[in-house]
Design goal:
Elements lengths: L1 E10 L3 H9 L4 H4 L3 E9 L5 E10 L2 E12 L2 E9 L2 E13 L2 E12 L5 H28 L1
Helix pairs in contact: 1-3
């Protein structure tokens, strides 16, 4: 069974500044507690990650995933290539500039290979959504202060 969720946040930064944080996947574990490690396997011509291998842990379940990214000037998306516990994972950031701020919408769809109780899957999804929006906002603003 696939579950989908969407969430929005406004970040006081440009789309470029936000995309730079998303593209720095090696640092994801510093602001996203689900990520234990991330390795870039290969990159697009512009240097942004194309495929990554990451170890994630949520609701007590650890998994190694390979995901493939696509990038635009106003967004980033990824799709699952392989994993041990997930059948699918599709995610997308859509960034809409609004003056000196940016509206960020995050959409995520996941389906597991193994049976996981619905309440656990929903809890994991909710935690991921909060990190992907509020956690991203906090990280972007921290880096802007440096």
């Amino acid at each position: 069974m696939a579950l989908s969720e969407s969430r929005e946040v406004v970040i006081e930064a440009t789309p470029e500044e936000i995309l730079d944080v998303i593209a720095d996947v090696e640092s994801a574990s510093e602001w996203s507690p689900q990520y234990e490690s991330c390795e870039v396997l290969n990159r697009h011509d512009d240097g942004r990650p194309k495929q990554t291998k990451m170890v994630v842990k949520t609701v007590g379940i650890s998994d190694t995933m390979v995901i493939e990214y696509s990038w635009t000037d106003t967004g980033a998306s990824w799709t699952l290539v392989s994993a041990g516990q997930l059948k699918t994972q599709d995610a997308k950031y859509t960034l809409t500039p609004d003056g000196d701020k940016t509206k960020v919408r995050f959409d995520l769809t996941v389906a597991t290979l193994i049976p996981i109780p619905g309440f656990l899957l929903k809890r994991a999804l909710k935690g991921g959504m909060v990190t992907a929006t509020d956690g991203l906002r906090k990280r972007v603003l921290e880096l802007k202060k440096e």
